[in-house]
UniProtKB/TrEMBL annotation:
It is found in: Membrane. It holds the Pfam family Sugar_tr. This is Putative polyol transporter 6. Residues 1-431 form the Major facilitator superfamily (MFS) profile domain. InterPro entries: MFS_dom, MFS_sugar_transport-like, MFS_trans_sf, Myo-inositol_Transporter, Sugar/inositol_transpt, Sugar_transporter_CS. Its main location: membrane. GO terms for molecular function: symporter activity. It comes from Apostasia shenzhenica. Belongs to the major facilitator superfamily. Sugar transporter (TC 2.A.1.1) family. Keywords: Membrane, Sugar transport, Symport, Transmembrane, Transmembrane helix, Transport.
Length: 463
């Protein structure tokens, strides 16, 4: 959409306000999708929720690709947004629930790698279709998204159902069968099954496929009451951390840079359209490259060190972009050093975001919830994520017109500092713990560092 908007504005003769609305409406609709996706996935399973998301994506892409006017384009963007809400909720939850503990960070970050790869492919599509006649170019950029939806629908046929969802349904034999495929040995599969049963409140000696009446309430009912009306101190802390992470992921400026990078580079002094598209593609390449770094470090270094390093780098990168844009705005002449500072700052921000805050937000928030709450609680986090995303996407132009574009990036730098303090004090390490034991990490009070020694001792005793 970042490249397509350049052509949509020219072809459909829409205003800046309509451009902002077009950019942000997808995420407002994703908010609605995410709030329903959790309950749907508890009812029909993780696999079939992915199918629902894929079908919605397909319809939205076709509507945008064949849109004759702005209202139909907005309709397609809204439909696609609902699919985004479903996908962003189910992908990390499904990945976390089928992953072994030692590789959970790597496997749960794969959705973010695929999102980044999709962004890069979007930038490449912008360049590939930019030479088409105006009325066809942007439609091809958006309509081609229907093709991956078809592949995803077909791919679901080869995917196992989440063993944790199967246990919640009382389908213990099916869960054991899946775990045997996902484990290195039958003993490991049996150990994982016993942990999941304990987390679901199923007696250890129960191996029946008939759900006992006392367990029937685990099918997604009463979750919202447990989260918001009668939360335990541990659940309350988990909610604050997960929702805070999703909020801070976007108020630090990632949406402004990914979606409006052509405008940022133009403000820095890069004026030619082809150069703008190639510079924007550099954002996509950097995003994919550095998220691969996070993938291989998450299970070795841990979530917390990567997160704090990431936000530190984001802060200094945003400061560079702000000073570069400030210099460009105050000088009547072109300043090559300021242009270089802006481009370096943007790419540096993307690199640091992608190696930490980008993937870890999804990894961390999908693994800290108790099993009985995970799907619907994750949908709350996604809803906050999409609402913040949509607000940033639909208000960035107005924000930089009010504060100047340099001022907007100084504001994002300030929010990065707030994010660092939040993560330092409230986010304990979760690396190396089975999903069923992560909840224990949040049971030692609000300050993460004070509970670190106790957590280490507990883990050692358990091992």
């Amino acid at each position: 959409m970042s490249g397509a908007m350049l052509f949509i504005k020219e072809d459909l003769k829409i205003s800046e306000v309509q451009v902002e609305f077009l950019a942000g409406v997808l995420n407002f609709c994703a908010l609605a999708g995410s709030l329903t996706a959790g309950r749907i996935s508890d009812s029909i399973g993780r696999r079939y929720t992915i199918v629902v998301a894929s079908v919605i994506f397909l319809i939205g892409s076709l509507l945008m690709g064949f849109a004759p006017d702005f209202p139909v384009l907005i309709s397609g963007r809204c439909v696609a947004g609902v699919g985004v809400g479903y996908a962003l909720m189910i992908a990390p939850v499904y990945s976390a629930e089928i992953s072994p503990t030692s590789y959970r960070g790597l496997l749960t970050s794969l959705p973010e790698i695929c999102i980044s790869s999709g962004i890069l492919l979007g930038y490449i599509a912008n360049i590939a279709f930019a030479k088409l006649p105006l009325i066809y170019g942007w439609r091809a950029m958006l309509g081609i998204c229907a093709i991956p939806s078809l592949f995803l629908i077909a791919g679901v046929l080869f995917m196992p159902e989440s063993p944790r969802w199967l246990v919640l349904q009382g389908r213990l034999a099916d869960a054991r069968s899946v775990l045997l495929k996902l484990s290195n040995s039958s003993a490991e599969a049996e150990l994982r099954l016993q942990r999941i049963k304990a987390a679901a409140g199923i007696p250890e000696n129960c191996d029946s496929d008939v759900v006992p009446p006392a367990m029937d309430s685990s099918k997604g009912k009463g979750v919202w009451k447990e989260m918001f009306l009668r939360p335990t101190p541990t659940v309350k802390r988990i909610l604050v951390v997960a929702v805070g992470m999703h909020f801070l992921q976007h108020v630090t400026g990632i949406e402004a840079i990914v979606l409006y990078s052509p405008r940022i580079f133009k403000a820095a002094g890069v004026n030619h359209r082809d150069k703008l598209l190639f510079a924007t593609m550099g954002v996509g390449v950097t995003k994919v490259a550095f998220i691969m770094v996070a993938t291989f470090l998450l299970d070795r270094v841990g979530r917390r060190p990567l997160l704090l390093t990431s936000v530190t780098g984001m802060f200094f990168s945003l400061i560079c972009v702000g000073f570069g844009l400030l210099a460009v705005g105050q000088s009547p002449e072109r300043l090559p050093w300021a242009v270089a500072l802006c481009v370096t700052g943007v790419l540096g921000f993307i690199a640091f975001f992608s190696m930490g805050m980008g993937p870890i937000t999804w990894v961390y928030s999908s693994e800290i919830y108790p099993l009985r709450l995970r799907a619907q609680a994750a949908s709350v986090g996604v809803a906050v994520n999409r609402l913040t995303n949509a607000t940033m996407a639909s208000s960035f132009i107005s924000l930089y017109q009010a504060l100047t574009i340099a001022g907007a990036f100084f504001l994002f730098a300030g929010m990065s500092l707030v994010a660092w303090l939040f993560f330092y004090f409230l986010c304990p390490e979760t690396k190396g713990r089975p999903l069923e034991e992560v909840e224990m990490v949040f049971s030692h009070g609000w300050i993460a560092r004070k509970g670190r020694k106790t957590e280490s001792q507990l883990h050692s005793v358990h091992t």
